[in-house]
Amino acid sequence: MILFNQETKTFHLKTSKTSYLMKVLETGHLLHLYWGRPLKSENLDYTVRRKDWFSFVANTDNIDAFHLESKEQEYPGYGSTDLRSPAIELEFADGTSATDFRYVDYKIVDGKPALEGLPATYVEANKEAQTLIITLTDKVKNVDVELSFTVFEEYNAIARSVKVINKSADDVKIQRVLSANVDFKDSKFEMIQLSGSWARERHIIRTPLRIGGQCVESRRGASSHAQNPFMALVRKDVTETNGDVYAMSLVYSGNFLANTEVDMYSKARMQIGINPFDFTWLLKAGEEFQAPEAVLVYSNEGLTGMSHTYQNLYGKRLMRGVWRDKARPVLINNWEATYFDFNETKIKEIAKQASEFGIELFVLDDGWFGERNNDDRSLGDWFVNENKIRGGLKKLVDEINGMGMKFGLWFEPEMVCPISKLYEAHPDWCLHIEGRTRSTARRQLILDLSRKEVCDYIIKSVSDVLASANIEYVKWDMNRNMTEIGSAVLPAERQREVAHRYMLGLYHVMDEITSRFPNVLFESCSGGGGRFDPGILYYMPQTWTSDDTDAIERLKIQYGTSMVYPNVAMGCHVSAVPNHQVARITPFATRGISAMCGNFGYELDLTKLTDEEKAQTKAQVAFYKEVRELIQFGDFYRIQSPFENNETAWSFVAKDKSEAVVSFFRTLAVPNDNLATICAVGLDADAIYEDMRTGKLYGGDELMYVGINVPDKVVGGIAEEGKELFAGMPSPVIEGDYAAFIWHFKKVNK
Predict the structure, then answer these.
(1) Catalytic residues, which ones?
(2) pTM here?
(3) Most Cβ neighbours (<10 Å): which of 75, 277, 515, 660?
(4) For the segment 555-595, what is each residue's pLDDT rounded down to a tens digit?
């Protein structure tokens, strides 16, 4: 709901659990008043105060004791008495950059307008949301800014975006245009970010705010392994279930900035948007520029409340298509089983074994095309290598379909190898700067998706392959970041637009291909989790969470990813040991339980498993299918953090609380340790639940407040009796390093 009080010139944005208020001053400046728990009144005039901050802070409009620098603004510019970090910075034809945006008017529309060329949240019916569009103008330069606020009342979120409109007769250069800005009256916060690197993405970092700027950003041409386009400010007492959380998430896949500045008066300014670094956009007379969308979430129910809001909104009103609400298949991927060394005989051997385990989808990874026998050639040459796949792709697909399995295929469409037919024909199609080295990473260059002909080539070549056989899944990879960012066809004054134009081209390509093949399940990958962001989820409803398949490393990666992203968006696989990334040896059962945190699958040579591992694989697949929809679409609760403990625990609870799965992990064995219990979260305290392994009944209150016994060795035998956890694992106990256990509870009518 959006209310406007004409008398006080106050906007009140109301969700089911949040109020967000802004006010237009008599001078036309748009102030931010409040963001937090729901309020009944929108009259907060008493909070707008003046103070003489002495001569070094300029008065606004030469009004005594009226300083924009001391005010909480909604969308601040720079150079007109507010010298803090601006949300927008423009360069005008006269070379100056001071701006002074003031209120013109507003409109409220039902529903949510789409953002042209950009991914964004959406509504399925106009009654789901209202959108407020406020127009600000710089009268001197005749440039408008439209601020858009969409209120998802039931999802408890506010989506923001910004459009810059050049109404003047002169060119304007956009140097900075962030998507959201929130000013706070204090800085008594800690900042949470999701950071890491390749193979250890989205680790949770929590640090106190300090005077000055604190930011997370990407300058890599992608949202990146190193940082995620998300930031939260939390009060210092915030836990998983209690306390105030203020979060921003950017629906964008390229260079971004998430910034918090604490000024000299100890007030915090929080911002997110396209990274201004190496960014300029030339806005001709009469042109518009649309910035990406930022999604703002407030929770007074701690981090879990914030996460559930993002997970529910992104799961239902960002992800799209027929696969949004469908259970995802259990898959086998051949990459770590064979790498480039395979032929159709080996592929069919793995597929046949997978079908006997009940696995539903076979994914053929890198190496099936061109002359691709290693990673130094053929990216861009999207035709089948019939020396490896004799008889062609359709024949192989038909044979695997005949085993009762779907077939999926790996692509890396955004790249080109210098040794390829595509590069030989079009050496200017890659990002490059004339006269400079064309730096390769993984022996590949990046195609220039700012060019229409390049986008058209990708759309046609990928579409031709997908139309040639019954391909029902695509793994879309991207294995390097941008260097020498330049385009052969753009003029000099537009070269700093290339990185953003690339993203617009990528979104066009993805939109076109996914629209042509609406029944294909697309999974994004970028060396694993290098582009695990909301922008990609709009086109592809799941992402390969990390190239690191080690069960223990995955605890932190998956735990951190859950801060923002739905369970169903995470791809999680069981791989061989010693693990190919960290050389760790973990029990087969632990690998299975760790991978049951999203979309479950295997990435190893199933034909080389021992008889015991084969039995466990079949049992794991059967168990996962039993709880698949609960894990993929249930509410996720973080119980014990791998960043703080030797033990990790999380759970999945059905929306109606009728069912739950609880997972527990102990990284290292501890001699003579205490017996462990885990308290479940999110159950119905008044209900009775059955442990589906032992048949034992528990009250929901017992499971949450007393806890579940973690099976351990005790004098006289096993602590908990019941059927095997997984076939071939006759002693379901926590024992040794890297141990894990999983419970399945169902509500009973007793």
Answers:
(1) 477, 547
(2) 0.96
(3) 660
(4) 999 999 999 999 999 999 999 999 999 999 999 999 999 99
